[in-house]
Amino acid sequence: MEEEKIRYLAHLARIQLSAEEVRSLNCDLSQLLDYVGQLKSLATEEVEPTNAVLPAYNRFRKDEITLSLPVEKALANAPDKMGDFFRVPRVITERKTNE
Amino acid sequence: MEFEVVIGLEVHTEMLTASKMFCGCANRFGGSPNSQTCPVCLGFPGTLPVINEKAVELALKTALALNCKINKDNIFARKNYFYPDMPKNYQISQFEEPLAVNGCLTDTATTNNNKIHIRRVHMEEDVGKLIHAEGRDYSLVDFNRAGVPLLEIVTQPDIKSPAAAYIFLTNLKTILQYLEISDCNMEEGSLRCDANISLKPVGQEELGTKVEVKNMNSFRAVRLALEYEVIRQTLLLNGPEKVNLVQETRLWDETSGKTFPMRSKEEAQDYRYLPEPDLLPLKISDQFIEKTKDTIIELPLARIKRFIDSHQIPAYDAGVLAADKNLADFFEAVVRLGPEPKMVSNWIMTEVLSILKEEKKAIGELNLTPESFREILMLVGEKTITAASGKEILRLVIQTGGNPKDLVAEKGLTQISDTESLEKMAREALAQNPKSVEDYRSGKKNALGFLVGAVMKQSLGKANPKMIQDILLQLLDAV
Question: Using the beta-carbon criterion (under 8 Å), do A63 and B253 form an inter-chain contact?
Answer without folding.
Answer: no
